[in-house]
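Supplementary Methods S3. Input chains for the assembly prediction are listed below.
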Amino acid sequence: MSSSAAQIRGLIGDRVKAVRGKDVDALVLHYARDVLSFDVVNPLQSTGSDAIKKRLDEWFSSFQGSIDFEINDLKITASEDVAFCHGLSNVKGTTTIGGKISMWYRTTICYQKMDGRWTITHEHDSVPFNVESGNASLDLKP
Amino acid sequence: MSSSAAQIRGLIGDRVKAVRGKDVDALVLHYARDVLSFDVVNPLQSTGSDAIKKRLDEWFSSFQGSIDFEINDLKITASEDVAFCHGLSNVKGTTTIGGKISMWYRTTICYQKMDGRWTITHEHDSVPFNVESGNASLDLKP
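Predicted structure tokens for the full assembly:
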């Protein structure tokens, strides 16, 4: 594995820990100020790390206590200064309204090295939808 | 713009033409044999260019005549041998059952240079969903 790929793998490990600990600041740190993100839920797209922070604050506050989180099937492709990775994110927890959630979604994270630091300039998270029902597929498993 | 970025921009131009002309072979040519794709519709993930071909065949045959297709807000990030780009894909057409479709979805395409050719090793296409209704958001506009 290239040293770039090893660095990205380390960042993903940090990300998993930060989501489990609901540490918004540790997560936001890795996004470019003008990151363009495609999220699991509306809207179609968002621009900026402030939007990421707002979304994480909302998401984390919808869970009671800590979140059980992992990223499976992680595949990293990296050159010296451009990299991308993808995997299947799994989030499990209890919502503030008492429901149990266990959901898999697809994650693609794209990095550029800026001032010597790997920085997320684009992220795409989603679930597919069922073409017959028009519903988002929230119960698929790998 | 770097020469890599110019090459990717050219490939996206070719892609747009190929979708409009329903040219499955011209599209499949650019995918790695073991490409990992996250599509707009189920399943959660697919592996391989054969799955891409099957999906394109199905998708194109669901339209009467040609498809009106574009990718807006294209942003390309490229090094010598790793690149990614993202944009908003818009498909318009008339389905074989007579319905008019005009839909925007998010597209992220990730490339590796293999044997001197830019090759798609990962693609992620999706629409977000409406968290209140659980429905896929098929009518959002940029």
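The two ends of chain A are 25 Å apart (CA to CA). Residues 3-20 of chain A form the longest helix (18 residues).
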